[in-house]
Each structure stands twice: as C-alpha cells, then as structure tokens.
Amino acid sequence: NAGVTQTPKFRILKIGQSMTLQCTQDMNHNYMYWYRQDPGMGLKLIYYSVGAGITDKGEVPNGYNVSRSTTEDFPLRLELAAPSQTSVYFCASRPTGREKLFFGSGTQLSVL
Amino acid sequence: DAKTTQPPSMDCAEGRAANLPCNHSTISGNEYVYWYRQIHSQGPQYIIHGLKNNETNEMASLIITEDRKSSTLILPHATLRDTAVYYCIGHPPSTSGTYKYIFGTGTRLKVLA
Questions:
Q1: What end-to-end distance do the CA atoms of chain A give, in Å?
Q2: Range A10-17 average pLDDT
Q3: What's the pLDDT score for residue B26?
Q4: Which of B23, B101, B103, B110 could, after both became Cys, cross-link A43 (CB 3.0–4.6 A)?
Q5: Is the pLDDT of residue A40 over 80?
Q6: Which of B30, B31, B33 is nearest to B5 (CA)?
Q7: Which of A71, A85, A64, A31 is nearest to B100 (CA)?
Q8: Chain B residue at shortest CA distance from A4
C-alpha cells in the first residue's frame, strides 16, 4: 500500500489564485482529515470527512472547501489564496474501528 | 476533545532515557491517550497509545497515572534521530461518534550528542 499520498509537494501561488490540494489513500479508510501547520506551530484541523459524501468543519475552515465523492479521495480547495494561507498542509486518514491516524507527507504552500 | 498540556521544549542526552510529560486533566473516561511524533516537517507518525494501563512497544513506553490526569512517554535510549516534536492527544474511541481529532502544540525534543 502507498498509504496517504498528497500532491503537489510544493506550490507557490499568487494572491487571489485558486488551487486544489490532492489527497488520496489506498487503505479503504472511511475517515479523512485536512490539517494545516504554520511555521513553528502545531497542527490545526481544517475539515474532516466520515465517508463519501459527508464532510464537516474543523477548527479553521474559513477560506477552504472540500468534497468527498469517493472513499479514496479528499481534495482541499483554496478559492482565493491569501498570504495567511501560507502553511504546510497535511492529509490524514484512519480506519473504522481504530483511532490511529495515518498521515501523508504534506504539501508546502506559499502565497505571495 | 480533551485538551492536553505539554512543555514546549526539552533536551535529552544521547543514550539517556527521554521522559516526555503530558497533562490531560480533562480527559474523559473513555478517551485514549495517543502519542505521535513529527520529525522535521514530515507528517506525524504514530508512536503508542493507551487507555488505563501502561503500554510498551518497540518504540517507546507509555505510563498513565491511575487517575488518568497525566501520562509520560518514555524513549528508553534516545538517539539523535529521536529529535522531533512529540504530540500527546486525547482520542475519543472510534465508536463514540466524535470525529474531530485536535492536536496541541507538542513538545520539541532535542537529543544532544
């Protein structure tokens, strides 16, 4: 299994641009999460999903949108990029019946 | 989700035991204590978890106080590769209907040569 795969690894955006961060997992996990991590800080939960078609807000959802059309994929959309969204974004998943999170390797995003 | 409190940073000499404390006084009776670590800017990795009893695996030991208000992660023989940020988190059980998993700021452990 590849586990949780995130693309791209790095991206630079201009203010006002939009982009989608991709996250896919091949472990058939129902639960998926998006976190952001600002420099020197801990992880903040953006959105999460408990299964295909079901998503909910985390701690810091403003400026982001998500969708979950399949079990495998959980893309994160930035519509109007702002410098405050400069961060490292991590996607995670966990299986039903277990609490342990499996993380991807992250996407480093800079908005200039 | 239970709020956890950890010291922001700690140093440990290479080869010595690293003892990382975590206060989780608001944890509920059915919440697990999970520990993850994040090396440099990689994704966090699972280390160990427990509910009431002490636990040990190939990476670490977890000591949970009897009142469950605090725990200690023990790396028995720290190496330079254990330099990382360590997160202590309260995870509701998977059957609880609570799905938000909230991280704190963690402890930055530096292992010194």
A1: 36
A2: 96
A3: 80
A4: B103
A5: yes
A6: B33
A7: A31
A8: B43
Nearest to A50 by CA among B90, B99, B92: B99
Please determine, for residue B102, whether its predicted confidence score (pLDDT) is greater than 90. Answer: no
Answer for the pair B109, B86: CB distance below 8 angstroms, yes or no.
yes
pLDDT at B98 over 90: no
| Token output for B1 | 């989700």
Say which amino acid occupies B37: R
CA A112, CA A15: separation in Å to the nearest integer? 6
> Do residue A42 and residue B91 have CB atoms under 8 angstroms apart?
no
Cα–Cα distance between A76 and A94 in angstroms, integer? 17
Query: pLDDT tens, B4-47?
Result: 899 999 999 999 999 999 998 887 778 889 999 999 889 999 99
Q: What are B56-66's pLDDT values in tens digits? A: 999 999 999 99
**CA dihedral sign of residues A37, A41, A42, A44:** negative
* Cα(A24)–Cα(B83) distance, integer angstroms: 29
> Which residues on chain B are in Cβ contact (under 8 Å) with A96?
94
Question: Which residue in the set A56, A96, A100 is minimally distant from B46, CB to CB?
Answer: A100
Structure tokens at A9: 């690894």
Q: Which residue has the tokens 């998926």?
A: A32
